[in-house]
Specification:
Distance between the termini: 70 Å
Largest sheet: 2 strands, parallel
Strand content: 5-15%
Structural class: mainly alpha
Number of domains: 2
Number of strands: 2
Helix content: 55-70%
Length: 133
């Protein structure tokens, strides 16, 4: 049976843990509130972007002559893959999955006779593809 001194220490320890937990909860709530404010402030931009894209999509007609040269459909000859990986590790399988997907993309499109270029952002991807063409 624990004595009174042990019980007091235990109570003090539990109260200390409660204070730490309360502080962590307040920090998390503040972070969540800031993230929600950023989402709300970005909403008008997203709405406007949707309106612009909808307007452009509505004006595209499926005729022989497109209204703008950039909207013309033409055969794909050259492709550019932009791979963004992390600079450091400790990202789990993040970098490995990105590199594996990039290798699959490169091999499948090169197999179709297309010229594929790669830009690797981030040290992990850059170092990997420097060693392997």
């Amino acid at each position: 049976m624990p004595n009174v001194l042990d019980l007091r220490r235990r109570i003090r320890s539990v109260k200390s843990t409660q204070q730490i937990t309360r502080a962590m909860k307040m920090v998390a709530a503040a972070r969540l509130r800031r993230a929600q404010e950023r989402v709300i402030s970005a909403r008008p931009y997203a709405d406007q972007m949707l309106a612009v894209l909808s307007s452009v999509a509505a004006r595209i007609e499926r005729t022989e002559q497109p209204i703008h040269p950039l909207l013309a459909e033409r055969p794909v000859k050259k492709l550019l893959l932009v791979l963004i990986t992390s600079d450091r590790g400790l990202a789990g399988a993040f970098n490995a999955n990105l590199i594996r997907a990039a290798q699959y993309y490169l091999s499948s499109h090169r197999g179709q006779g297309r010229e594929v270029f790669l830009i690797a952002g981030g040290r992990k991807g850059r170092d990997f593809f420097r060693r392997r063409p």
